[in-house]
Amino acid sequence: MSRDAENLTGKILIAMPGMADPRFARSVVLVCAHSDEGAMGLVLNRPLPEIDFGTLLEQLGIEADDAARPIEVRFGGPVEPGRGFVLHNVPEHGNDPEGRLRIGRALAMTTTRDILEDLAHGDGPESAVLALGYAGWGPGQLEQEMLDNGWLTGEGAEELIFGDDHDMKWHLALRAQGIDPSLLSSASGRA
Fold first, then answer.
1. Distance in angstroms (rounded) separating the CA atoms of residues 126 and 136
2. Which terms in the GO cellular component ontology are assigned (predicted)?
3. Which of 28, 109, 125, 159 is the most exposed place for a label (fewest CB within 10 A)?
4. Which ranges of 28-140 would DSSP assign to H, the alpha helix?
5. Quick one: fold of 11-183?
6. What is the tens place of the pLDDT at every residue in 37-52?
């Protein structure tokens, strides 16, 4: 990433109305990692209601007990759809164990089985969602999509990350940037 480019880790991407890829139409994506090698993010507003967390635990051979909390399962993106990522809150200070990527001061993504076992027993983070798959961009690809008017960027908010009103997240994300969604056009251009 050039020195002039902004690191988007921890920011959200908001799909513009003219988004060419239908998998990302009206999507809100949390950027989990961004560097010269590319970017990785998780879609925040695509639930997978047909996949139950308890059933998923059973398939993984993890026995849940009565203390297990219901965890929402979401479509994280089209890359590696069988791979799971737990997006969760963390204490602002402290060490991050192996398998945990800190995204912001109090937000992380974990890919290890340990966190699923903790959640199955009512332990682990207070707020958590499980995303299957992720959104990925090669070197310079995300920056080019932004230049082509595919994405707006903004700040992530807990409601966008952990909230369950998925139909409104795109609108809420735009409004948080001071943009009225009804005024956006799907046409793009350059002056």
1. 27
2. cytosol
3. 159
4. 53-59, 113-120
5. VC0467-like (3.40.1740)
6. 999 999 999 999 999 9
